Amino acid sequence: MYDIVGVHARQILDSRGNPTVECEIELSSGITASAAVPSGASTGENEAVELRDGDKKTYLGKGVTKAVLNVMDAIAPIIEGMDVRAQEHIDAAMLDLDGTNTKSKLGANAILGVSMACARAAAHACELPLYRYLGGSAAKVLPVPMFNVLNGGKHADNNVDFQEFMIQPWGFDNFDDALRSCVEIYHTLKKVLHERHLSTAVGDEGGFAPDLKNAEDALKLLEEATDKAGYDWGRQIYVALDPATTELWNEAAHKKKGAKGYCFFKSDPKKIVSSDQMIDLWAGWCKKYPIRSIEDGLAENDWEGWAKLTAKLGDKVQIVGDDLFVTNPKFLARGIKDKCANAILVKVNQIGTLSETFDAVNLAMRNRYSAILSHRSGETEDSTIADLAVATNCGQIKTGAPCRSDRNAKYNQLIRIAEDLGDRAVYGGKFWNRA
To answer: Are residues 354 and 326 in the same domain?
Structure first.
């Protein structure tokens, strides 16, 4: 009843209206399960390759029919007949067939769709929820969410250089109260923006995207909204940042050939600052605001700067590598060796299979690095990462503002999982002592 007898794929649309891959697995028992693949906008140069058609006459070149055909013509023949529960064997067979380091032959979007759909089909066949199937009886930690409530950078058409300003509800005893607090703060923030005659239009991940006097003004808005919503800034609610500085680094190189620094390309295009100056900026903000996490505080190739940033702030703040590590155990191992960052952002489509995703999470945890399961800016209604966050007991998830169905699908799945776990559930906020 566990044998794979059918593999199908189709082109569907993601949250930005761009094509993406959905895969469907059929078992000999008649069970079917599907999974859809997310897509990023701010991407690291070492990510697994997302195969696009490149035909400008169709979906402006973003079609994924080549990846869809690779699923049905190349991958299907090698995995049909396999036991769907043999996840590592299935993933390894696809990697061998592709034969490249970046999955550029078949496309990481083709491989990942099959990998996730197989896990869903296996869970269904075993009559288990996905988080329990993947994590076993130990899976019980509900993650602390990172709510991206103010957007800038490449996620919004405003004057804010930094990409994401997030709130994290660490100071609660259960997931339901934590979720409710940030939903209420989000709606309160909309009122604050409206009262200031600022835009309440939202960016790709559901966060508001107003023009501001400066980037620091975003933190002041978060504090005001938290206070007005009736929550304790710095005890219940904390700040997490993702400035996506690789984009600032690339802009500096674009403005000035050979420049090694960071360009504030939206607010002050002539300004280029050094790594040390960026580190000083983060250190200054951390003294003034309850910042607990900084993701991609420096660019993906600024390894020397990362070591300095980690040495300066790593004992007080979560220093998260996204573009730096791209969910790849090879880059994470270098970070551990060079003492760069103390956490990894985990995006399934950065690496391309569930097996490799678990390898990255396990390597991080063995070396006392935090792991954060993450969405992408181009999402779907697929809620797999919610189950993965609980399955790995990683304790944190990043999946956008409580806005738009593609983001709320993950929060709603966590609500279901919390209900299923009942009294066994442990909220991840309990893992970080609060003042």
So the answer is: yes
Residue where one domain finishes, among candidates 127, 148, 181: 127
- Residue 43: predicted pLDDT: 73
Tell me, yes or no, if 205 is annotated catalytic: yes
Contacts of 34 (CB under 8 A, 6+ apart): 22, 23, 24, 25, 117, 120
Confirm if 212 and 229 have CB atoms less than 8 A apart: no
Task: Identify the CATH number of the domain in which residue 88 sits.
Answer: 3.30.390.10
Three-state secondary structure call for residue 96 = helix
Asked if residue 279 and residue 245 are part of one domain, the reply reads yes
Q: Do residues 329 and 279 touch, judged by C-beta distance below 8 A?
A: no
What residues pair up with 371 in beta bridges, in sequence order? Answer: 344
pLDDT for 257: 75
Q: pLDDT value at position 435? A: 34
- Active-site hit among 164, 205, 251, 300: 205
Three-state DSSP state, 233: strand
Ordered mean pLDDT values, 10 residues apiece, the chain (435 residues): 97 97 98 96 83 97 98 98 98 98 97 98 98 97 98 83 96 97 98 96 92 93 98 98 93 80 88 94 98 97 97 97 96 98 97 97 97 96 98 97 97 98 95 52
- Pick the catalytic residue from 62, 103, 347, 410: 347
What's the domain count of the chain? 2
Q: Which burial class, exposed, middle or buried, applies to 16 when counting CB atoms under 10 A from its CB (0-12, 13-18, 19+)?
A: middle
174 DSSP assignment: S
The answer to whether residues 251 and 265 touch, using CB atoms and an 8 Å cutoff, is: yes
CB 172 within 8 A of CB 427: yes
> What b/e string do you get for 206-221 counting C-beta neighbours within 10 Å, with b at 16 or more?
bbbbbebeebeebbeb
Burial of 349 (C-beta count, 10 Å sphere; 0-12/13-18/19+): buried
DSSP conformational letter for 71: I
Q: How many CB atoms lie within 10 A of CB 93?
A: 15
Whole-angstrom Cα Rg for the chain = 21
Predicted local confidence at residue 168, as pLDDT: 98
Indicate the burial class of 54 (C-beta count within 10 angstroms; 0-12, 13-18, 19 or more).
Answer: exposed
